[in-house]
Amino acid sequence: MNWHPIGDISDIPLRGSRCVKTPHMNIAVFRTGEDEVYAIENRCPHKGGPLSEGIVHGNAVTCPLHNWVISLETGKALGADDGAVRTIPLKNEGGSLYIALESLMMAAE
Ligand code: FES
C-alpha cells in the first residue's frame, strides 16, 4: 500500500471530522468519542449530502440532510435505509494518520 499522510489525530475534534480533498474524491475523516479514526467517502449514499458535517455517535454518522445513519466501519446505511459509501483504508501510527491512495484510484475507475 502507498500510504499518504493526512495529518494528526489531534487535528480532528472528538466526535468530529475533517474533509480531505483528493483528485479522485472528497474524503471525510472521522474521530469517534473512543478515539477511533475512520475515512469514508464524503458523499451520502442517499442524495450526496456532506457526511463530514454530520453528527458522530458511536461508530456511525448521521447525515446532515435527511438523517440517514451511516456506519463508519462498513460505509453502509443502517436501519431501514439501503446504500453504502466507499470506505478508505486508514492507518493510525501514534496519532499520525495515513490513507491508502491505491484504493482511491480504484474508486475512480
Ligand atoms: S443526502 Fe444524506 S440522508 Fe439524504
Bound heterogens, unique: FE2/S2 (inorganic) cluster
SS strand fraction: 35-45%
Biggest β-sheet strands, sense, barrel: 4 strands, antiparallel
* Molecular shape: globular
Q: Topology of this protein?
A:
Elements: E1 3-8, E2 16-21, E3 26-31, E4 37-41, E5 55-57, E6 60-62, E7 69-71, E8 87-88, E9 90-93, E10 96-100, H1 101-108
The protein binds FE2/S2 (inorganic) cluster.
FE2/S2 (inorganic) cluster binds at residues 44, 46-49, 63, 65-68.
Explain this structure.
By secondary structure, this protein is mostly beta strands. It has a single domain (3-108), classed as 3-layer Sandwich (Rieske Iron-sulfur Protein), CATH 2.102.10. Helices cover 7% and strands 39% of the residues. It has one helix at residues 101-108; strands at residues 3-8, 16-21, 26-31, 37-41, 55-57, 60-62, 69-71, 87-88, 90-93, 96-100. The strands form 3 sheets. The chain has a 4-stranded antiparallel sheet with strand order 2-3-4-8, with no helix packed on it. The chain has a 3-stranded antiparallel sheet with strand order 1-10-9. The model has no long low-confidence stretch (mean pLDDT 93). FE2/S2 (inorganic) cluster (FES) is lined by residues 44, 46-49, 63, 65-68.
Task: Name some characteristics of this structure.
109 residues; mainly beta; Rieske Iron-sulfur Protein; three-stranded antiparallel beta sheet; 1 helix; 7% helix; globular; binds FE2/S2 (inorganic) cluster
